[in-house]
Amino acid sequence: QFGRIILEENAVHSAVKGCYQECRRIFANSLNTQATNVSSAILTYSTDLAPVFMTKECAKQLREILTVYGSLMSTLSVDRMRQNNENTGQPGHTNQTGQTGQSDGEDQLIENECHIDNVLGGIIQPILQAVRSCSNQSLEGADAAVFMLNNVSTLQTELKGCTTTTSNTNTNTHTITNTHSATSTWIELLDTEIRVWTDIVVLEETNRTLKRSDLDMLLELIEVLPSTLVASEQPGLTPDRMNNVLKSFYSTVFTTVVISAYIEKLVDPELRTLCRVRIANSIVKKYSIIYDFISNINNKYDIQILTHTVDEIGVLLGYSGVTGTEN
Q1: pLDDT at 181
Q2: CB neighbours of residue 310 within 10 Å
Q3: In whole angstroms, what is the distance from residue 29 CA to residue 13 CA?
Q4: Tens digits of per-residue pLDDT, 48-72?
């Protein structure tokens, strides 16, 4: 910014610029060292699959950095201004290197490393790598997914929390949205990560529920059954077999507290709600396949074995209207 105010280089300009460059160098080195240590760290998980301490520390760093970044009057770098001046021939530039003795190429490298987008990435990517490594080596299935979701959502919460500021007055409350453009890339990345692991939780919990009543086996048989055959006359799809499986399934639906207790390990309340709804939705869709199959007169079943309709199963699961499109 000095190039706009001071037309010629002077001692104050050089001293401040030199201090600035040295601070950037130290910060960039510190960030790189942390990234190396975090990505190679050996993490351990707790029985409740809560976010690890290192994730919480990185989340705290994100909050502090974004708080400072959001309060800056200007995010325009000295070096970028100097480069623009050199290219346009404006006064106030110098071809000399700073007092730190770095070349222009080194200045540009540090400038890139200290860009807010790269700083956030230098914190987020290493911890994600470390958490994935811990998950892959020690956990599997829904356990791995819940562990990942807890760690990823902890980081995401800090990024999203820094985009909105709320202020109170004597009369009402105002919400001021201050979205940092640098956070959008990383919020999208974490959103993608959350979707992947949420899908795994939903799939694992749905399959676990269906397997308790053998409804999963019926669905597999139905899928491969030729349409020319009478279903009720085929092994594994007899009326007695269908009746017993449905009774077991209805009993399972009434004990879905087992699913809820598992989902309670998720630390983000919004994720807990999302997973419950999506699991219920998935189970109802699977049941609707069985319901339509038995209701088909060509399969020659007594529809009296269908104690509950599809909508009633949704209500029994605690989520009315879950038969719609999954989120």
Answers
A1: 64
A2: 17
A3: 24
A4: 899 999 999 999 999 988 888 877 6
Structural contact between residues 31 and 148, judged by C-beta atoms closer than 8 angstroms? no
For 83-124, write each residue's pLDDT tens digit: 444 444 444 444 444 444 444 444 444 446 667 888 898 999
Please work out, in degrees rounded to the nearest 5, the angle formed at the alpha carbon of residue 89 by the alpha carbons of 88 and 92.
115
Q: Are 38 and 55 in contact (CB under 8 A)?
A: no
CB hemisphere CA count around 123 (13 angstroms):
27
- Are the beta carbons of 6 and 92 closer than 8 angstroms? yes
Token pair of 111 as six digits: 């400038």
Percentage helix, strand, coil for the chain under 3-state DSSP, each rounded to 5: 70, 5, 30
Helix (H) or strand (E) holding 53: helix 53-70
Q: Distance (Å, rounded) from C-alpha 184 to C-alpha 282? A: 30
**Paired residues of 164 in beta bridges:** 177
